[in-house]
Each structure stands twice: as C-alpha cells, then as structure tokens.
Amino acid sequence: METPSLKTEPQSADPAKPTTLTVPGRKVSNPVRRRTFLQRILCAMSGFGLLGAFYPVLRYIEPPPESEGANRVEIDAAELPPGASRTILYRGRPAVVVNSAQGYIAYGGVCSHLGCIIKWSPAEQVFICPCHGGKFNVKGVVLGGPVPRPLTAIPVSVAGNRVIVGA
Amino acid sequence: MIGRVASGIYRWLDDRLEISKVVDFAYKNLTKPVPKHVNWLFSFGTVTLTFFTSQFLSGLLLMVYYEASAESAYDSVKFIMEKVRFGWLVRQIHSYGANFMIAFLFLHAIRVFFYGGYKKPREVTWLFGFALLAVTLGFGFTGYLLPWDQLSYWGTTVGTEIAGTTPVIGSYLLVLLRGGETVSEVTLTRFFAVHVIVLPWIFAGLVTGHLFLIRYKGISPLASTDLPEPTPEEIKKAGGKAFYPKHVLKEGSVVLLVLAFMLLMIVYTPLPLHEKADPFNTPVGVKPEWYFLSMYQALKYVPKLVGILGSGLVILALLLLPFWERSPERHPARRPVAVTLGILFVVANIALALLAKLSETEHTFLGTRYHFDTYGWPSVVADPVLPSATEADDAAKPEGDKSVDASSDKEAESSEENDTEETKETDESQQEKPGGGE
Q: Min CA distance, A97 vs chain B (Å)?
C-alpha cells in the first residue's frame, strides 16, 4: 500500500498516477483519486467535529445566565433623603438613583463616552462624568463634554417606604 | 482554491525561512514505519497524551471561574457545575479525564513492560515515562483537594498523613505539604499553584523528552537486544506500516472510542460534588483515590515503617527496572519469569485495591451479609437489621449515627476515631465514593 503524501504537490508529480480519466461519455482531466477524496472527507469531518467542540467552549466563557444581576432593586426610602443619590447594581451594571427635586429618578450609571461611572451633583442638579467632564441634566440629556449619547432612563416607582428601581 | 492559497503561503514562507527543510524532516519522521507487531495496545500512550491535552484545556476553562480559597473554592465549583453553561461538562471532563489519564498511563506502562520496550537502548525513555507517571500522580493528588469538598479535604488529610510517615523527613514533609499542622487554606493555595503552574511545566518538559526519544529511537522491536536495531527499510520489508497514516488512524480510533466511553460515563454516572469541607467533621469511609488504594491497603498489613520503606523500594525497583532486568530478550514468550512476575504484580495490585475498596464496608452476597474489616477479611453479620442487646451495649455506637452525630464539639475525638478504627457501614450507599476530585 502506498503512503499518501502530506504535501500539496500537484498530483501529476507522481508519474504513476493518471492525469486524465475517462468516465462514460466524457473525459475528466486531473481527477480526484479515491484516496484523496476519502482524505478530504476525513479532514472535513474532523474539522466539523472540532468546530462542534468549540460550541460548548464559547457558551462556557459567556457570562453565566444568573450573573447578569437583579433587574429589580428595592431601596429603603429612608436611605435616600431629598437631594441624595445612590449607586446600585442593576442588571449587572451600575445605575444611579436620585431623590431629585422632580422626584425619584434613575439612570444607567455608565457614561456613554468611555464607560466611567457618572456622579450626581446635588448643588448643580446635574450628573457629571468624572473622567472627561461629561454633563447630563435630570432628564439624562447631554449638557456638555465629549459624550455621544444621553443617559438611559430606568423606571422608578415608590411603594410605601420602598423605592423600586426597574419594572 | 484553498489549496492554491495554502501552497502560495507555503512557498512564500519557504523562500524566506526554508521551512521545507523542517517540513521534510517532520514528514520523514511521521511516515517512519512502525514494526509489524505494533497493534492497538500501542495506542495507550497516545490516549494518555490526549487526556493530558484535554486536562490542560478543561483545566484552563475551570480556572476561568474557579477561586482558590477555603471560603469560595467549593462555591465556585458548585457555580461552575450549576450556573455556568456547559460547566457541568467541563468539570466532569476534567474529573473523569484525570482518572482516565492515570488508568491509561498504567495500561501504557504495563504494555511497555510486557513488550520489553524499556530495554536497551530505550532505558532513558522509560525513565522519562516513570517521571511522567510520578508527575501525573502529583496532578491527581494536588487536584483532588481543589473542589474543597468533604471527600477531597479528608482524602488529602489522610494522603498527607501517609507521606508524613516517611522516615526521618516525615514530619517536615507533612508540614511542608500542608503548609501547617492541618490541611487548611494554605494547603489549598499551594496545591493550586503546584497543580496549575509547577506540574504542567515539568510535565511539558518531560513529555517533550519522552516523545522525542520515542520518535528518535523508534518503536522497540521484539527481537533480542543483542541484535542490531532494524533500519526503517528493514522494518518496512518485514511488514511494518507507516506511522502516518496507518498507526495514526488506529490510534485515532482508540482515542475516539475511549472519549466516547468517557462521555457515556459522564452522562450516566457523573462524579458528585460532596458536602463542603468541614475540618471539624470527618465523614465515614474516607479512602484515597483508586490509584493509591493498593498502596494504602498494603500499608495496613505491615508496620508503618516497613510499609513505607517497602513501597519505596518497590517504586525504586520499577524506576530502575531497565538496569536490573537485563536479559536481552524482549519477546514476552521468551521471558517467562519476568512475565509471570509482572502478571503477579498487576494481579496483586488489583487484589489489594479491591480489598481496600471492600474494607470497612458491609455487603450482601447470596443472601448473607458480610462485614469486611480493615484488612478486607469478611465476617458474617449475625443479624443485620436488629443489633442484639450485647452489641448495643458495646462501646461502638451504631455506625449510622456516627456520621450524623459527629458534631463540631466532638470533632477532635471523632476525627481521630474514624481515622483509626474500623468504621462499619450499614448501607453501601452511605459510603462516599472517592472520585469527586479534579
């Protein structure tokens, strides 16, 4: 039995191999030999097998489902006197809740510029990004700085003495 | 199309780096013929290597979520198994893979012994292989602790205790291994460091040497060492087949079969994660992992010092096997004494391991209930359901209570008790099987 070549030499390198083959009705030049064909099938199957093994690996390194964090956070209203703010974890990311003059408001705390966490400035009644001077008003609208997008609002409701962030 | 691009890149690289020299050399080695007697038994080494690769990859994945601290190790493993997608699979592949890797390493070593593969000029290959065995057992021993469950904690306590009985350096070794008087977080972090950094590097070096020597000297012939080693042409003429693709295909098939078998075991009998480690409460029936069982059992029959020295001598004898077993014959049929001794050695190890497994348990055979004492000897249990009045008056408590009762205020007492005396079990299912290790 011959040893198949690993090299990518053209098949005609082997003088013993036919370069043309007559199939009933037509002539085929440089036909794919059975061994080569089987090798290709084997390679393809191994390749698909390996690709299949990647699927669990990719799923494994994705964030696990439960690590995305609570999508409903309750805060004791006493902890949030008028003018005060709190940074909480909401759906796995920081969010800022403020007891503002307009009532309770909550925004995703991540600045849309480069991912720093915004702070509430009670004196100015604005959100300030400490990194590059981004500024947002109580409606989350950009007032200044290099910020591309406004803040994402999070629904807030009050039930008794509990402030509920999220739906 | 792909072929043309590939050969274009190849030519481009060859123009600059002359990689064809390396490729030709690799190709020549890859297609080197293996002797005619090489059968599927010769794929155990490759299976072991495959498991090592799998251990490396699955271990890497486990490290993504694993936390090496007494506080969170257990919870992080639980998190991997319960919360992370496919985490159960990764952890099972790692735990089962460890067992399979050691099993196939043993089979590989046994195969080499019976085919005389360790003889001249392949003594160094044997030494490398032996070192690989030691490192692999080290992997098993250090990895076993990492899930930080009851079994791994107490298995490590007993294991390090045995190491502590080594003459002269025993007590020093014990403290060095544990990083203190008892198995604690210090032990966990040092075992982790050894498991994921130290041993993998040593293993990589050793396995490179081992594989190089195998390719360099070729597979051992079956002829006497007095005869010159056959050249590749002679091997081919005698009916030898190319390593690639003939033997590679054979090995690939065995690897796939073994992997499929492991997956079946993972799905049908997954290895459990036991209760979180409790340093104040020894569970019933703590035994080492199966690959340490025969040594563990052998140590019971002889005084500690004799046992430790004896097993040390056996290990040394195996390490130096090519240097004292110097008969020139390789063929098993022409080495009756060596082969008989080899079979006896394997059988004795299996028997000891079985005795260890049976020891301190109760089983029913043909309607009769037997209790197996610490030496593994059976005795008929008179009335397994209702203990007689005299038995109840005995100092020994009913064993079912023992595991439950061992509360933290009695911990010192009960842990000692359970370690040393024969602890019966009323139900086989109560015995926590070793094997939850990494």
A: 30
